[in-house]
Specification:
Elements (H helix, E strand, L loop, with lengths): L23 H6 L1 E5 L2 E4 L16 E13 L4 E12 L6 E4 L4 E7 L2 E2 L1 E5 L2 E5 L9 E10 L3 E3 L5 E7 L2 E5 L18 E11 L3 E4 L2 E8 L2 E13 L5 E4 L2 E6 L5 E6 L4 H8 L2 H12 L6 E6 L16 E2 L5 H9 L8 E2 L6 H17 L5 H9 L24 H18 L1 H14 L4 E2 L1 H12 L4 H9 L8
Parallel strand pairs: 3-14, 20-21, 21-22, 23-24
Antiparallel strand pairs: 1-2, 3-4, 4-10, 5-9, 6-7, 6-10, 8-9, 11-12, 12-13, 14-17, 15-18, 16-17, 19-20
Helix pairs in contact: 3-4, 4-5, 5-7, 6-7, 7-8, 7-10, 8-9
Bound molecules: tryptophan and zinc ion.
């Protein structure tokens, strides 16, 4: 597979806006204006492409989401309990939450003031929270959720389907169905409990702790223990065929498949255990206890998402898409972005995993995939902007991010050799497991592992405008 086909729309334009480099330290300490009573948490973490994404002043350690959804009326009721810790004194703080009507909001069980300003839900607790203190925010809400439109024109968030909802939040859509610190910089554990009419299934991340039916409604309780970015949460609802099993490696697999996609999906889903085993050999241990696939019938979506532990597909995936979303469990899910401009660390890596898989399973070599792309003329959209600096949120899922991102890894591989290359990938997954990584950190790691100066290579392939000279 030589080019991404997860992205629905063609590249809209040549590059691009300049970006403001933001140090991670600055991201982590983003603070709002000081006041006499304390300080206000910032309305964003400082992401140059999504300035309002996430919030300053606190971290969320756990989300407890209790939802009810009725596919016929498309009505959602929700209760979100966020367990958080203040990283500064806070007289007020923001959550990201768009659309749904709020029916109650407390901080530590005491009614708090709030107002809404676009995607910002500005919360004023009855008394300021001192720095370092843990607190609990409870928000109850309801309404008819819908998706957001991203800068590139695609939809994400709560996307209704004919029998439920396709729920995928990259990059922004988590805030359409729960109040969140909506940036990958903040990772948390989740309990997601969803009640749907009997006969429907609600599938979220992690392990299914319990399921019970009462008065014509079924409740599913899911737990994602390992840290997860909000955009990777799902609660996809539909009429699904469900299959559960445990792999030889002890992974709990839960597959939910729309019957209309079942015949095409079955031979691909069957390979999940062997794909994860192959990737574990290459990248190190699979980061989660749970696995599986959600195959919906959502022809209006146009992409799949690597929802943590259990990717969601808009239709039956082909094998290389399954390999791609599975690779994201290491690269993107376990090792998270600190800033959306580093998106090639997700998409370039997952695409290169497809190339490696093909190469080792009787398909084209990665070199052949590289050559086919490199043969494209300098005017091709592949060279429209550099993957390490896509320039705006409208470009983060563009061809250069996927394809030239993967080409960058291929040039790295041919420069340092197969053994060192794989050592770099494994060390990356291991050293940043459940955490975060930046492009600069990856470059340093590659230089350390190889003992080579790779500055020129990364500059050319990640940052230079236009088609690079033959490596
Ligand atoms: N990360 C997804 C993948 O490559 C793709 C994706 C998620 C996407 N959200 C999107 C593509 C929005 C286009 C628009 O597997
Ligand atoms: Zn991807």
């Amino acid at each position: 597979m030589t080019h991404p086909r997860r992205r629905p729309a063609p590249l809209r334009r040549e590059a691009v806006l300049a970006t403001v480099p933001v140090a991670v330290a600055a991201l982590l300490t983003a603070a709002g204006p000081a006041t006499a009573a304390g300080t206000a948490g910032a309305s964003g973490v400082g992401d140059p492409y999504f300035p309002l994404a996430g919030n300053g002043g606190y971290h969320v350690s756990h989300y407890g989401l209790t939802l009810g959804y009725d596919p016929a009326s498309r009505h959602l009721t929700g209760k979100a309990v966020l367990t958080a810790r203040a990283t500064q004194r806070l007289n007020r703080f923001d959550l990201d939450f768009k659309g749904l009507k709020i029916t109650g909001l407390t901080v530590d069980h005491v009614k708090a003031g709030y107002r809404r300003d676009g995607q910002e839900l500005v919360v004023t607790p009855a008394r300021p929270l001192r720095k370092g203190r843990s607190f609990r925010v409870t928000v109850t809400y309801q309404g008819r959720p819908g998706p957001v439109t991203d800068p590139d024109g695609s939809l994400d968030g709560w996307i209704p389907t004919d029998d439920g909802a396709f729920v995928a939040g990259e990059p922004q859509g988590a805030m359409t169905w729960f109040p969140a610190n909506n940036h990958p910089l903040d990772k948390s554990s989740y309990d997601i409990t969803v009640t749907v009419p009997k006969g429907s299934t609600a599938v979220a991340n992690g392990v299914l702790l319990g399921q019970r039916t009462r008065n014509g409604r079924t409740t599913f309780h899911w737990r994602q223990k390992e840290p997860m970015a909000a955009y990777l949460a799902t609660a996809t609802v539909g009429k699904f065929q469900v299959k559960q099993y445990t792999t030889r490696d002890g992974l709990k697999v839960y597959d939910a498949v729309d019957p209309r996609e079942a015949a095409a999906a079955a031979p691909v889903l069957k390979k999940l255990p062997s794909v994860l085993a192959w990737e574990s050999k290459l990248f190190g241990p699979y980061p989660y206890r749970a696995a599986g696939s959600i195959v919906d019938h959502a022809p209006n979506v146009g992409y799949a998402l690597e929802t943590q532990s259990r990717p969601v597909y808009d239709g039956a995936p082909d094998l290389s898409t399954l390999v791609h979303e599975s690779a994201h469990q290491w690269f993107g899910d376990s090792v998270s972005l600190t800033s959306w401009k580093d998106i090639w660390l997700n998409e370039g890596f997952a695409t290169y995993a497809e190339w490696l898989y093909a190469e080792q399973h009787g398909g084209d070599s990665a070199q052949k995939a590289f050559d086919a792309l490199y043969a494209r003329p300098a005017t091709d959209g592949l060279w429209a902007f550099p993957p390490g600096n896509p320039g705006s949120g409208a470009n983060i899922f563009g061809t250069p991010v996927y394809a030239r991102g993967a080409m960058t890894l291929h040039v790295l591989r041919t420069t340092v050799g197969d053994r060192v290359f794989l050592r770099i990938l494994r060390a990356w997954a291991e050293q940043h497991r459940y955490g975060h990584g930046t492009t600069a950190q990856f470059e340093r790691l590659a230089e350390r592992q190889s003992g080579k100066d790779l500055g020129r290579l990364f500059q050319t392939w990640l940052y230079d405008q236009g088609k690079p000279q033959q490596p």
